[in-house]
Amino acid sequence: MLNSSKKTNWTIYLMLLPWIIGFVVFKVYPIVVSFYYSLLEYPILGDPTFIGLQNYIEIFTKDDTFTASFFATIKYVLIGTPAVVLVSFAVAAILNFKLKGVNFFRTAYYIPSILGGNVAVSILWSMLFDVNGPVNTILSVFTFGGEVAINWTKDPKFAVFTLIILKTWQFGSTMLIFLSALQGVSKTVYEAAEMDGASKLRQLFSITVPIITPVILFNAVNVLVKAFQEFNSAYLITKGGPNKTTYFLNLYIYDQAFQNGNYGYASALTWILLVIIGIFTVIIFKSSNKWVFYND
Amino acid sequence: MEMSKSRRHINEIIRYSLLVLVGIILIYPLLWMIGSAFKENRDIFGSLSIFPPKDRVVTSNFADAWQLTRDRSIWFFFGNTLKFLIPKTIFTVLSCVITAYVIARKSFKGKKFVFGAVIVTLLMPELAFRIPLYLLYREVGLLDTFASLYVADMFASSSFFVFMIIQFMRTIPKELDEAAVMDGCNELQILFKIIIPVIKPILITVALLSFMWGMNDFQGPLIYLNSSDKTVLSVALKQLLDGEAMVSYGRVFAASCLGLLPMIAIFFMGSRYFVDGVASTGSKE
């Protein structure tokens, strides 16, 4: 008996071996080494030299591009995250009513989030938001003849919103997570509220929202962490411009590492971005003590 | 009573109108793209209509788009995408299901650590690993090979998928494995003959998502592949955006349609796997 359990144990570790290798080679090694790289002057040709915190000092004291890139990223994240979470929740709340054809809408709403990251959609987006594109045409209709000619992708005031709208357009997967949480809320809770004469809207805010706060937290963190790493849309649609208003940190890191070959400097930028993401995540989690309710 | 019945009716109408409105906002851009692929330049902008004017329907855009560059068809670039996408998908499913099986159903020393490591890496931005992996691949000669885009997937490196399968496996009764042990099955037999048939839906979800995300991947090929005979579809489409091709917008739209076509086809074939799979990640979290 003892013998056989020992034997199975070996099989278990053997089956786990790929993951162990993966964890060491593709997770632990890169993260450790990338911090070390951030302390180097690491040019594309020639040997790297150790320069201590010099990269970080330069980023924080001399690098105007970093400052611009930092604020561009923050703006995108701080507007984009609430936008996605709110729209997802609102649509999920409507879909949660017993309506015929809900499955159809559920599936249809999911399409943009599966296609959204594709280059073809970025191409489409730059056409939609062209000066003569349909978005301006629709806006012109609403302004009753006054022609709207916003140059969405080239106007510093609007460029980032072009990308935020694209991000919000892809709310489908976040919405599905909300919807399945809403469907898990027991019906009896509502029946009791109905007895007390609480309106539907009142029920939404005083029953539904508190119950699904853990899912709101999950979605908010998820969307936030992804938004901080946005690359495709900014690279393809606005090319980081105009005036670096959409030059997100991920683009700056890409340019420093793979266009200029400054691997050390780019690693330092990466670590700064990781710390920023960490800080925001911690803030959300800390604040969640005040607004997230767990049943158990 | 009459009153409340008609009120309920009105509520329902309002809800449907909202749903339809949201649906239009979401789907209109895609329909406009398809319609524009059949238009002349002058009919694309300034008009909201999806359909081209009856007397100016252009059907040659698709043929022009098929020949994406001077000497290569779109099929060539799609083929390149498949060259990394198929191994990527297979390796992802295999390595993740084996790892998830061990974590979800076996007790062993260090299990807590392994599960913790999966969760921590799940939260870690992919960006963190990029530069060291690039330099590592350069060192071992993987740069500019399709393998650079899937080598990590051979080792269950997608914590998201591992986690997703673990969550699904937890819903399956343990008695199933125990009965198999009684029958003298070994670990691999239990996994492949007993567990995998039961968890097939989630594995299909993983395969589909891995495939779709791989199709969408743009930054990976941009960084790791640089010779022109290895250009994948996403990068080739990007070259349209800044190339001379912008002369004919209809052709660009046709190329975009062709680029999205495989994804839309796969989506409709497997839509329930997508929708159920994504929904489950949140509720069981």
Describe the structure concisely:
The complex is a heterodimer of chains A (296) and B (285). Chain A has helices at residues 2-37, 54-61, 64-95, 102-115, 119-128, 134-142, 159-169, 172-184, 187-195, 200-211, 213-228, 232-238, 249-259, 263-291; strands at 40-41, 49-50.
Reported CATH architecture of chain A: Orthogonal Bundle
Q: How many H/I helical runs of chain A?
A: 14
* Mean pLDDT value of chain A: 88
Shape of chain A: globular
Query: Could you state the oligomeric state of the chains shown?
Result: heterodimer
Q: Kindly estimate the percentage of residues of chain B that lie in beta strands according to DSSP.
A: under 5%
Q: Which structural class fits the helix and strand makeup of chain A?
A: mainly alpha
CATH superfamily of the largest domain in chain B: MetI-like
CATH architecture identity of the largest domain in chain B: Orthogonal Bundle
- The top level CATH class name of the largest domain in chain B: Mainly Alpha
Number of E-type strands of chain A? 2
Instruction: Kindly provide the name of the CATH class of chain A.
Output: Mainly Alpha
Distance between the termini of chain B: 43 Å
Largest interface: A-B, 88 and 88 residues
- Anisotropy-based shape of chain B: globular
Amino- and carboxy-terminal Cα gap of chain A: 39 Å
Quick one: how many beta strands of chain B? 0
Low-confidence stretches of chain B: none
Biggest β-sheet description of chain B: none
CATH superfamily of chain A: MetI-like
Q: What count of structural domains of chain A?
A: 1
